[in-house]
Design brief:
The chain has helices spanning 15-30, 35-54, 58-77, 93-97, 123-131, 221-228, 232-249, and strands at 111-119, 143-148, 153-158, 168-177, 181-187, 194-202, 209-217. It has seven helices and seven strands; from the N terminus they run ααααβαββββββαα. The protein is of the alpha+beta class.
Length: 272
């Protein structure tokens, strides 16, 4: 009597044995070693099992035909019936980025820093001084210069922190509300992608103008400090301290210091 089992010992293949074998094949194919070759191998194996099934009779025919059809489907559809991964296990660019250290990736949650100061001046004087971005190196000592390219675009060049060339970036104005609001953002490739705004409003008690500077970086504060030599908090605080001094006295102090902020990162309002 002819054997009607895969091993030739006269016994039927047990379902758990067949499933285990298919699972091992699926594991091999889903490992990402050769997804395309694995699909063809699965389809060829399924076809072979189906042909073997046609040569048998009874339950052996049905079992082999069913196993062959399942294995063929594994290859044709690129699926793993005994696991959650598919045969297309080659890493995608998205999965590769997920394994990059956080310090080398764009921050998923933008880091927002806000500073506030009251300046004894009308908003027009404050607005006009900041609106000319060429003045900003006077407020941000980490900047070498700002080249105004057009009414809406400028290029910012920072000083080098540890030799070589400092980082640079191109900025585009988004919104200009005279004497009230300026917003801008970096454009193109840059190591320091960010957006920012300067908001002006009357100070309580008719004390002048309340100036609010907001910086939103797409990289961690540690990377900002490594490239500019100052954290976003320190950058915002220093800029507004110098702005206040420039507008109220017309001169900048020769003492290079940075006021300390509180632990939350907001600016401690400057007073007279």
């Amino acid at each position: 009597m002819a054997s009607n089992s895969l091993t030739g010992d006269g016994r039927w293949p047990r379902p758990d044995t067949l499933g285990s074998g298919l699972s091992r094949i699926g594991d091999r194919f889903g490992s990402g070693e050769a997804a395309t070759g694995g699909r063809w191998l699965a389809m060829m194996g399924g076809t072979a099992l189906g042909v073997m099934g046609l040569q048998r009779s009874g339950w052996g025919r049905a079992m082999l035909a069913l196993g062959g059809a399942g294995l063929f489907a594994v290859g044709a559809l690129g699926l793993r019936p005994f696991g959650e991964r598919s045969l297309h296990a080659a890493p995608t660019s998205a999965s590769w980025r997920s394994h990059v250290p956080a310090s080398r990736r764009r921050s998923l949650t933008p880091e927002r820093t806000q500073a506030v100061v009251t300046i004894a001046s009308d908003p027009g004087a404050v607005f006009r001084f900041w609106r000319n971005f060429a003045n900003l190196p006077k407020l941000m000592p980490q900047l070498e210069r700002v080249d105004v390219l057009s009414a809406t675009e400028s290029r910012w060049i920072a000083k080098a922190v540890s030799g070589g060339e400092g980082p640079s970036w191109r900025c585009v104005l988004d919104r200009v509300d005279e004497d009230r609001l300026l917003t801008w953002h970096t454009a193109g490739e840059t190591a320091l992608p960010h957006r920012a705004s300067l908001m002006l409003s009357p100070a309580p008690g008719d004390r002048g103008t309340e100036v609010r500077l907001t910086l939103v970086y797409r990289v961690p504060a540690t990377e900002v400090a490594a490239l500019l030599g100052v954290t976003p908090e320190g950058q915002a605080e220093e800029a507004l301290r110098r702005l206040k001094q420039r507008v109220e006295t017309g001169e900048l102090s020769t003492i290079d210091r940075q006021p300390r902020g509180n632990g939350s990162g907001s600016f401690r309002e400057a007073t007279e």
